[in-house]
Amino acid sequence: xxxxxxxxxxxxxxxDILYLHFTPSALRCYSDCDMFESIVLRREIDTNAIVxxxxxxxxxxxxxxx
Length: 66
What we know:
The protein is mainly beta. It starts with 7 loop residues before the first strand and ends with a helix. The protein is globular and about 35 Å long. The chain has one helix spanning 58-65, and strands at 8-12, 17-21, 29-36, 39-44, 50-56. It has a five-stranded antiparallel beta sheet, with no helix packed on it.
C-alpha cells in the first residue's frame, strides 16, 4: 500500500478511531458519511476534495477479518 498521500495520522487507542490527513493543515471541512459503514470521508467545503478519512473501530474490524 502506498502511504505517500497520508501526510499525518493519529490513532485514538481509547476510542479505537484512526484519523488520516491528506493535507498539511486543517481546512474548512465537512463530513461525508453516507458511503461506508464506520468510515467518514472529510471533504474540503469549497472544492469537495477528500482531505482526510476517519475510521471508527479499526482494531475491532481487523479482528473480525482474521
